[in-house]
Amino acid sequence: MARNTTLLLLLVLKLFMAVLLAAWACIWIIRPTQSWKRSWHVAEDRANATFLGDYGLTVVVYCLPVLAVATLGYISLHIAAKKDDLRKRRPLMPAFTNPLIVSSPVGVLSAAELLGVALFIVFLAWTYYSNVSSDFKKMTPYKSLKLNRWQLKMMHMGVRIGSLSEACLLLLFLPILRGMAVFRILGVQYEASVRYHIWIGNTMILLSVLHGISIMFIWATKNRLLKEIIQWQATGRVNIAGAIALATGVIIWITSLPQVRRKQFQLFFSAHHLYMVFILFFLIHAGDRHFYLVFAGVLLFALDKILRIIQSRKQTFLVSASILPCRAVKLTLPKHPCMDYTPTSIVFIKVPGISEFQWHPFSITSSSNMDDSELSVLIKCQGQWTTDLYDMLNSMTDAGSDHPKSIPVAVEGPYGPATVEHLRYRSLVLIAGGSGISPLMSILQDIASRNGAMERSPTKVHLIYAVKKVQDLSMLALISPLLLTHSAELGNLHLKLFVTEEDGPPFTAEKMLQDLSRVKTITMNKASPEGTAVPTPEGLPWKAAITALSLLLFLASLIILTHLFVHQEKKSSKKKNPSWIGDLLLLCSLAIAASCCTVATVLSRWRKSVDDSQELSHKHHELAEMLPDKVHGALQTHEIYFGCRPNLGDMLAEIATGTGDSEVGVFVCGPTSMQEAVASFCTRHNKRLKREERKLKRSFNVHFLNFSL
């Protein structure tokens, strides 16, 4: 009965969210039409006769639906998280999320992603055509410029290209929300949604550059380029603010290119903080009325940033660190027993001893079901920051101290999926390359911790792991005790290891795991203040509450401030107020709303500080001590290959033949070539099953876990 009530409540919430989103999308679609513009002017006049005002009407129409969907989404995720059977429910259309285009300039694309991109392009084309065709009918001349017909047309076309950038800016911040992630409502993880931010950002910069170039070209033809570009108008568009916003956006885009980001991460990280300059000058250039159109995304991003700062301002300390032969380290951090996270979750880590500003994301390799007082991450040396961390820890072992002083770290997260996808399947195929094994470790530990306790949990697990060098296999040391002693808890586990660039001796997988599991472990000084656990992030109910609260506070502040400083002046004069007044009132209202939410969050955390400050009893044991004396026969069916790459197509075909389950979950974390190989086979296999119309369809559902920043 309780379960049916919960399902009904979730259904109502989802229907309400769908209606709000559909209404909001329809508003954006009909916004460029003349009928909407006429109706909107009438609605603004009526709103000005009330306390709400035309500015309040704009906020309600364009911001309220997005923030209401976010609020209801957080509530629905919270309700579903209370029920394990709801967290692993099968999606309505799994084929819609499976790969459709295997090889493309932007990687593997699903049908859902392709449809979303196509609809967004159609929306941009429709908006541009509708606006430009309307402008051409009016052809309103610019008073300060004496333009002929073609110049006037080009000017209008350039202005309308800029309006397309607004639509991109509205969506730009949504994919990179961490704690306030709205994409979790759609079942998309943070690390997967980052690439949507990249796509939207590239589109926005392209449109902004075209907008700026086309307008500046017209100015140049009239020999007024410098005069127009440095002009700061009292009302309307502020040209110099637009030029500054454009220059800032181009700088952010250039430093975000893979060639720059991978070699100069500090430059990329620092330049990205210019987003505050970009937003500010976009507001000054476009005006408050246009800024309200994109305000929902900006507000959610501001709230997300506030929660992250509050969580990470309290540092924690390492419990231990393990140094692996493959120039990788395992960091173990203390956590509160109440902190739960789903497998494949990530945390952002900052080590002040290396950099006071750099945050880096890493997959959690542990399971909160298996260890309630610690969490661990695996970090491979792949850049300057990770190399500095490795050298710092390695110097501790060279110093010879048994218990060196602990290292302070700051942590954001964990951020993970709302659903536990791997529990949907009876058969699992886990495929990893190099450090891509990290998120799969958390899946294996989660399966082992449940030990078949749930009605539907994996009973067959195939782990395919490819590395370049033998020493890279040492990353399995983190779960070798699990593989060697708890293989029964993992169901029918089959392990295949591939060393692609070395020819090795005829070792068994069992012997290899035992040899590589003897790693150097540093146990930090107990006298260090390590009782400070990783701060627990705010719960979903609180995120829903501050989302609704922030909108109400912003709208109330905006109405009050406008009536105090603008309303009386409007009654006595028809002269327009300077644009900076509206901009300033908007910024003040945002500051008030953000400040109130910050104070409320700090007070809420302070009330829970008594529980969070309890002493944690650490259960850390060195990996070497966990290895049993007798593990013979545990891994006799597992295989290791040298000097060759895994033929993923043949291996998946063999698995499809050998399993009796209708669906097989394939989880991939590795390089692009590995993703494309898996996606290519699974797509062909599923299409063949559909053509043959088999009664028992052993289809593959693919999940990509790659994260690259």
TrEMBL record:
Assign the protein's first listed, main location to one coarse class: membrane
The reply to whether Oxidoreductase figures as a keyword in the UniProt entry is: yes
Alphabetical keyword list: Membrane, Oxidoreductase, Transmembrane, Transmembrane helix
Q: Name one GO cellular component term.
A: plasma membrane
Query: What GO molecular function annotations does the UniProt record carry, in alphabetical order?
Result: ferric-chelate reductase activity
Query: Gene3D superfamilies per the record?
Result: Nucleotide-binding domain of ferredoxin-NADP reductase (FNR) module (3.40.50.80)
Q: Which SUPFAM superfamilies match?
A: Ferredoxin reductase-like, C-terminal NADP-linked domain, Riboflavin synthase domain-like
| Highest taxon in the source lineage | Eukaryota
Pfam families per UniProt: FAD_binding_8, Ferric_reduct, NAD_binding_6
> Which positions, given as ranges, span the membrane?
7-30, 59-80, 100-129, 157-177, 198-220, 240-258, 265-284, 290-307, 544-564, 584-603
The reply to whether ATP-binding figures as a keyword in the UniProt entry is no
Membrane topology annotation: Multi-pass membrane protein
Stretches assigned to the FAD-binding FR-type domain: 302-421
What are the subcellular locations of this protein? Membrane
Could you tell me what this protein is called? FAD-binding FR-type domain-containing protein
Q: Which organism is it from?
A: Musa acuminata subsp. malaccensis
Upper lineage is: Eukaryota, Viridiplantae, Streptophyta, Embryophyta, Tracheophyta
